[in-house]
Amino acid sequence: MGSSGMKLVVVGAAGRMGQALIRLIHQTPGVQLHAAVAREGSAFVGRDAGEISGLGPIGVEITSDPLQAFLHAEGVIDFTSPATSVTFAGLAAQARIVHVIGTTGCSPQDEEKFKAASRHARIVKSGNMSLGVNLLSVLTQQAAQALDAQNWDIEILEMHHKHKVDAPSGTALLLGEAAAAGRKVDLTASSVRVRDGHTGAREAGTIGFATLRGGSVIGEHSVIFAGEGERVELSHYAGDRSIFARGAITAAMWAFDKKPGFYSMLDVLGLSQPE
Questions:
Q1: What is the phi/psi pair of residue 123, to 5°?
Q2: Secondary structure element (H or E) that encloses residue 247, with its range
Q3: Among the listed ranges 1-10, 24-33, 92-101, 260-269, which one has the minimum average pLDDT value?
Q4: pLDDT given for residue 127 in this prediction
Q5: Average pLDDT for residues 189-211, to the nearest whole number?
Q6: Sequence-ordered list of residues with C-beta below 8 angstroms from that of 184, at least 6 positions apart, any chain
Q7: For 164, what's the count of Cα atoms within 13 Å in the CB-facing half-sphere?
Q8: Which listed residue (125, 160, 221, 236) is catalytic?
Q9: Catalytic residue among 34, 164, 221, 236
């Protein structure tokens, strides 16, 4: 690690998360912005990364060449799209550096590629980078374990801004996985994603998802345990995108001296349940 901190690359630098990351890295001791990457043909290529994110010039020009950007870097922070993240994971593996992935909407095939890259890269991937949500997932698993499936129904409710393209959110799925783990069931087999028309009675043991979209909501998630005559709700509200950026930077610094592998935010935060 250089004297002014771990050298980080922000990819997707022109996006909402990219700009939040650039601002935060600039203010955080122990890290420095090494490079910023935007996609080929973006109007931001060639501009100063600080200028586009409201800091004023910081002397890092946005490039569309990830190879060059990763060359002398120590870590990459990536909230982009599944296909792009898979490409970056391959480059991070070649460069043998840290790759923090906050991208959501990834397929099982994408996940396989991330795991393959983690033989050489130190990959930290999570559907949500915030401390609060990761704590919520641990509490969800404990509650699901304690409240039996015959008498308690689980519903996961999420709301996001109108620009979000994937549903349910990566966070909702993370919470669903936690609930399924608590119940020792497979999420894919037991989840109900859509209800429409005459659905019949609710099947015991299923985990339901409801997706709301609108306005500028950064992220709201609730896990509802509905029993006979009582209800338990666990909720998290994100008021500011910087909580995800802060979590991602924490993850990069944590992974700096780890051995190559595939990690989650639960590892970073010391919340991992022993297998």
A1: -100, 130
A2: helix 242-255
A3: 1-10
A4: 85
A5: 94
A6: none
A7: 23
A8: 160
A9: 164
118 vs 112: CA distance, rounded Å: 10
Record the tokens describing residue 241, joined without a space: 């995108």
- Greatest CA span in the chain, whole angstroms? 64
Reply yes or no on whether 26 is catalytic.
Answer: no
pLDDT above 60 (res 212):
yes
The pTM for the full model equals: 0.83
270 conformational bin, left if phi > 0, alpha if psi -120 to 50, beta if neither = left
Ramachandran sector of residue 133 (left: φ over 0; alpha: ψ -120 to 50; beta: rest): alpha
Short-list 224, 263, 271, CA closest to 121:
263
Q: Which residues contact 75 (CB under 8 A, 6 or more apart)?
A: 6, 7, 8, 9, 97, 98, 99, 100, 252, 255, 256
Question: Does 7 participate in catalysis according to the annotation?
Answer: no
Report DSSP state, residue 47: S
